[in-house]
TrEMBL record:
SMART domains: Haem_oxygenase_2. Residues 345-367 are annotated as: Disordered. This is Iron-containing redox enzyme family protein. It holds the Pfam family Haem_oxygenas_2. Gene3D superfamilies: Heme oxygenase-like.
């Protein structure tokens, strides 16, 4: 993976700097004030994503020594202050007694009123729309579980055991063919998409990057351990039914077993993970760390809010017959995702599929 195309003055300066020999002396660019909401600020979200990615797999055209350089850590800290302020504007404080955390998580999830992207994909989405959805999700699913794994060395006792039980499933219990990121790669290949790690980062909007950045923001900081666990709990508690709908939607469009397996596996696994995450993980952690109980709810609420805005963004664009993918680096937005394979046309001809597919996400070719 190489550095993505910049989307503003800060990401331009960062991309230019990271291509040079590492140094520790020159300060990073001062992020300019912006009146754009943080979830839709492309320059902010892309720069954060680049800074975080240096701590995951990095970039082929960037020296690994940049990861902990003052340039990167200083700039990231400045950006994170704005990111955190935006999250606090998005999610008001939630007071909770430590012993009530599992119940509060259930109530928070039950009260979530985000748009049903899963229901649309199950019943109404065209093949091209489903494939676009997979492109968006690839930013996270190709490193699924990694952001939450930062919490493992920061826990002990029963809470650590609970997290390891969840993460063991996510990583396939030692079997490569069962690892969830590998199952998602199979879904991408089944939809004629490029399954390379980070391949579509240039093509997704700020809100898609924000979904991934939220996990990294919490995961990279020990002070946000409670929020990391709360985010994971909300993720698991809202996963089983949507994944059932995703799988059924893909089958409706002609998806075969290898393509739908990623979603089918999550239906059963996340139904179990839901209880472990709410009670054994977050409940235990809150009782042992009473001062962090509100952080657990904050992380969960942020996860739900960002996911809701992600779904709202896709459905709004699709409702207006447009793709939510973006144009960067001079690429044409209609050339991002690959021609629809005949077996995924839902029994219709390619021309009939095009007739009911929004412009911009139809003849999208694997690059």
């Amino acid at each position: 993976m190489r550095l993505p195309h910049p989307r503003g003055p800060v990401s331009t300066a960062v991309v230019d700097r990271l291509r040079r020999v590492p140094d520790d002396f020159t300060a990073g660019p001062a992020p300019a004030d912006s009146d754009r909401p943080v979830l839709h600020d492309d320059d902010l979200q892309l720069t954060l994503w680049i800074c975080y990615e240096l701590g995951y797999r990095g970039f082929d055209d960037v020296d690994p020594s940049w990861e902990h350089s003052p340039f990167v850590t200083g700039l990231r800290g400045q950006l994170e202050r704005r990111w955190e302020a935006g999250l606090r504007d998005l999610v008001p404080p939630i007071d909770v007694e430590p012993e009530d955390v599992p119940k509060a998580l259930v109530e928070l999830v039950r009260a979530d009123d985000g748009p049903s992207l899963a229901k649309f994909l199950q019943r109404r989405a065209s093949t091209a729309q489903f494939r676009e959805f997979v492109v968006h999700r690839s930013v996270y699913h190709l490193k699924e579980a990694d952001p939450h794994s930062w919490a493992i060395p920061r826990l002990s006792g029963a809470a650590k055991v609970a997290l390891l039980e969840i993460q063991s499933d996510e990583y396939g219990e030692g079997r490569l063919d069962r690892m969830h990121s590998e199952l998602f790669r199979a879904t991408m290949r089944g939809l004629s998409l490029d399954d390379g790690y980070g391949h579509y980062v240039d093509d997704v909007p700020a809100v898609t990057l924000a979904v991934s950045n939220l996990m990294s923001f919490f995961g990279f900081h020990r002070r946000w351990l409670g929020a990391t666990l709360g985010h994971l709990a909300a993720f698991e508690m809202t996963s089983s039914l949507p994944n059932r709908r995703y799988g059924n939607g893909l089958r409706r469009l002609g998806g075969d077993e290898p393509a739908t397996r990623f979603y089918d596996v999550h239906v059963e696994a996340d139904a179990v993970h839901e209880q472990i995450a709410a009670h054994d993980l977050c409940g235990t952690f809150a009782r042992e760390n009473p001062s962090a109980a509100t952080d657990v709810l904050f992380g969960a609420a942020c996860g739900l809010a960002v996911e809701a805005e992600f779904g709202r963004t896709l459905l709004t664009h699709w409702g207006n017959d447009r793709s939510a993918l973006v144009t960067t680096g001079g690429a044409e937005p209609a050339d991002l995702v690959g021609a629809v394979a005949e077996r995924f046309d839902g029994g219709q001809s390619a021309s009939a599929e095009r007739d009911r597919t929004p412009a911009g996400i139809d003849d999208l070719a694997v690059r």
